[in-house]
Amino acid sequence: xxxxxSPAAVAVPRQPGRSLWLRFAVRxxxxxxxxxxxxxxxxxxxxxLIPGDPAVGLAGANADRAxxxxxxxxxxxxxxxxxxxxxxxxxxFSGHLGTSFQYRxxxxxxxxxxxxxxxxxxxxxxxxxxxIAIPLGMLVGVLTRGGRRSWLDTVFGMITGFLDSxxxxxxxxxxxxxxxxxxxxxxxxxxxxxxxxxxxxxxLPVAAIAIGPICTISRVVRRETAVVLxxxxxxxxxxxxxxxxxxHLKWALPNLLTSTLTLSGLVLTGMIGGAVIIESxxxxxxxxxxxxKAILDRDYPVIQGMVIVIGMIAALVNLLVDVxxxxxxxxxxxxxxx
Amino acid sequence: MSRRRWNPGLVLGLVxxxxxxxxxxxxxxxxxxxxxxxxxxxxxxxHWLGTDATGxxxxxxxxxxxxxxxxxxxxATAIAVVLGIVFGTGVWLMGPRARGLCLRxxxxxVAFPGxxxxxxxxxxxGAGGSSAVVAIGLAVIPYFARFxxxxxxxxxxxxxxxxxxxxxxxxxxxxxRHLLPNMAEPLLVLTASTFAQSLTAISALSFxxxxxxxxxYDWGKLLNEALPSLLAGRAYQMAGPAxxxxxxxxxxxxxxxxxxxxxxxxxxxxxxxxVETPASTAEPRAEYLVDVQDLSIRTGDTELxxxxxxxxxxxxxxxxxxxxxxxKTLTAMAxxxxxxxxxxxxxxxxxLGDLDLLGAVPPRVLAESVSLVYQDxxxxxxxxxxxxxxxxxxxxxxxxxxxxxARQRMxxxxxxxxxxxxxxxxxxxxxxxxxxxxxxxxxxxxxxxEPRLIIADEPTTALDVTVQAEILRELxxxxxxxxxxxxxxxxxxxxVRALCDRVLVMYHGEIVEELVTFDSASHExxxxxxxxxxxxxxxxxxxHG
Lengths: 338, 545
Hints:
The complex is a heterodimer of chains A (about 350) and B (about 550).
Chain A: H1 16-49, H2 54-59, H3 65-74, H4 81-93, H5 107-143, H6 150-164, H7 168-183, H8 203-229, H9 232-239, H10 244-282, H11 287-297, H12 300-328
Chain B: H1 8-30, H2 58-93, H3 96-110, H4 114-125, H5 129-156, H6 159-166, H7 171-207, H8 219-231, H9 236-263, E1 290-299, E2 302-312, E3 317-321, H10 328-335, E4 344-346, E5 349-352, E6 355-356, H11 363-367, E7 370-373, H12 387-398, H13 403-416, H14 422-427, H15 435-448, E8 453-457, H16 465-482, E9 485-490, H17 493-499, E10 502-507, E11 510-515, H18 524-532, H19 538-541
Parallel strand pairs in B: 3-9, 3-10, 7-8, 8-9
Antiparallel strand pairs in B: 1-2, 1-4, 1-5, 5-6, 10-11
């Protein structure tokens, strides 16, 4: 219940914001480390969970017995399992992710050559999604508040519902057919073959991974707008006769953003998965096409390295969403979402 | 389960799903996907969707592939649903510490793209149809477990579960008899959407070459084979599998949404408010600052306030009492021109001084005429903004003050209503203030525009008795020093009696009595209200919180 408002009863730290952020940073750094260790364990286990003898699996079909034994010793597979893990972890910490079986190249080189493509489409995709989905959902939410313009509600629901059920890779193929082959408006990947196109080559991949999440999130925003507009504080703002623009942008938007980001954090990290698949359509030489090729080639060091890197990207996107949330509403820093 | 409402989306979704299942059953029987014809033929009467690079009819192949695709999606869904429910309920039946740990692990897994886990599983098991099913099934488990655990948390707070626990019913029995049946409906909805997600995810794995391998084929594999032809300008080869994947996804989304909507039908939509009567028609009554004559408020055909008339003099505090639903708040909101959506009002006269409240009034004039103080359930201030931002916005908007001047004025106003440490309060968020502090801030904001009338709608109902008395004293002081008229709305006749010069008693949308002293009460309802109040001295006797 309400507290008595005598000065003595109110113990508020002098800088409530700063200590909240400090605690947030400590907690999130700890969890980043925990995620990193978990990814390390998973990556390590991939080799050991392969059915049968890992050394035989790693050596490939053409290897004879001597090759297998040499490889077993080379990779330290004859050591106790905890020892192997510590070796692996030590190597990763010193920046060595191993050597690719396929390319005879250090894995870290392969990863960092491919990282920019995936990072670009995933991050650009997330930015595009937020920039389009939030204004769109809010606009529809405001226009249809209290049962107004029910036709708009229906049309919006139908279009977003339909586009939402088109998977990214089907959308990608469709976009390629219409825009790259049909109209010839935007170039296809790879930009390596046509460097002069540069940023334009990213348009279709980003559109392909963004359209679905735009629909999902704008539906969330539309629903949240309807909820927020009915809140007591919106009535307070109306009672203060604040102009409509102030009420919607300054009063409603921050509240929308907190619930929207909380609900759509999963969608945004899921876009990294979308980016991984979409690269195949556009022949993008990113981490996604890389890990898929590595799985088909059974190139385990590359798989391990990419699992760790893609996992850390996802963790960083999660962190980014929570930092944004904290900037908008410091209450979310406590770890409990509002 | 409750009565199910059939909505068009649900029906369409079920029809689409039924057609797909029918195709899955009949496709491989009726069509032959292995006969070779002309290679890479364009669509024609013989091959509606053309043929692929080796000469297979694409339409036949797409339809035949339906069976394998749906079976794999069903397999992955079964893995996810069974293990997800087992983990989810299992977690809930653990001790609190183990439960907390497990929930955190599940949370961390949910926050990760499921596809990464699927790729790890695919890496271990190798590429192939069955490993794709296992990979996607395992990847969805955390979502399902999390959802089940949330539901279980909600259901297990119900009284019948705690009663069962008290009676010594075992955990397994509680899960089977009490938790699961009550979670059936939302879990069904989630199963529908999981099916769609597994379908597109397995197709994605096949599409990138990690799923079904030749000579078998599902939709994803067909898309994968068609990809080179896409770049060769034979896009029609993708049409069959692409359309079928979209139809399947759409069907599952429609069924999911439809089931959710049927389980939780939205409240009937309100009609937008109709336009108010253009201007006051009745003659003004000179003795009143606020003059309301024949005010009616209706929603649709129901009349909520039935033609009431009253007035408020300069510097007067008028109370409106009545039970909830009596129309007292609606009356105040109509006066403040803040009626909620769906309600319309009409009156012969509604004016404040020379201002006609029935006509068009610019927001600034309105702000400088009427201010409001609401009940404080902790939600009247915007939780996302600092108090300073909110409070000064009134001054910045209507008094056109700069940030610094507005802040200074607000600090003075906050001191005037005896809010402690006003500088700190302006930096804080609403949740960092107590209810009493917020209410003082609300009064300060109401005074900022120097209004002629303050409408206080149950301003002390949510507060402790001691704080309540302080807020009442504050309002009284404002009234005495600034001469502001106040309309004070309450269901608590004791509070009203202590504060107001005159009291209107409302009952079922009508003013049944107007009192200056309560001794003169004659209406049955007023007498009943008075009889329900313990004593004449509100400060001593109102002991409830």
